[in-house]
Amino acid sequence: MRGVLLDGVDILPSLLEEHGDALADDVELPRRLLDELGAVPSYYLRYFYAHDAVLREQLDGTPRAEVVGRIEHELLDLYRDPTVVERPALLMQRGGAYYSEAALGLADDDVVEVPARVGRDGAVALAQRPLAPP
Q1: What is the domain extent for residue 85?
Q2: Phi-psi region of 123 (alpha: psi -120 to 50; beta: other; left: phi over 0)
Q3: Torsions phi, psi of 119, nearest 5?
Q4: Does 131 fall in a domain?
Q5: I need a surface site. Which of 12, 50, 57, 125 has the fewest CB within 10 A?
């Protein structure tokens, strides 16, 4: 977030001043970075801004891909139940903004991330099997 307008006035600077520590904790980045940027970066940018710390965590613990894989398996089991209409608490451990909407259903004009090969001529999506109707 680079600005928060209230009645046409940007109140982000005062929000950072009053709630900067909580905002920094929420995105798992140092408070000084938010102050330097004058913004609240996406929590996902932790992988960029705190690269060394994230790498240490990955090397010292269970790799994130393994953790996400286990969570994903449990989530897919939950989503097999057509009565699930609320966001499962487990989803908060997975991460990925707007994942709950994507996992619960895609419209014909929705966009999904797919693996791609990036070369001299740009990114080319790799062929994928069609998504199952559910």
Answers
A1: 64-125
A2: beta
A3: -135, -165
A4: no
A5: 125
Which pLDDT score, from 0 to 100, does residue 58 have?
A: 82
* Strand intervals (E) in the chain: 5-6, 9-10, 116-119, 122-125
Picking from 13, 33, 60, the residue at the C-terminal end of a domain is 60
pTM for this prediction: 0.54
Q: How many domains does the chain have?
A: 2
> What is the spatial distance between Cα 74 and Cα 32, in angstroms, rounded to a whole number?
37
- The tens place of each residue's pLDDT in the chain, 134 residues long, gives 888 989 989 999 999 999 999 999 998 999 999 999 999 998 878 888 999 988 888 888 888 788 888 988 998 888 888 888 887 888 777 766 555 555 556 667 777 777 888 899 988 988 888 766 54
Q: Which secondary structure element, helix H or strand E, spans residue 19, and what is its range?
A: helix 12-27
The reply to whether 73 falls in a domain is yes
Domain termination site, one of 60, 75, 94: 60
**Main-chain dihedrals φ then ψ at residue 127, nearest 5 degrees:** -55, 140
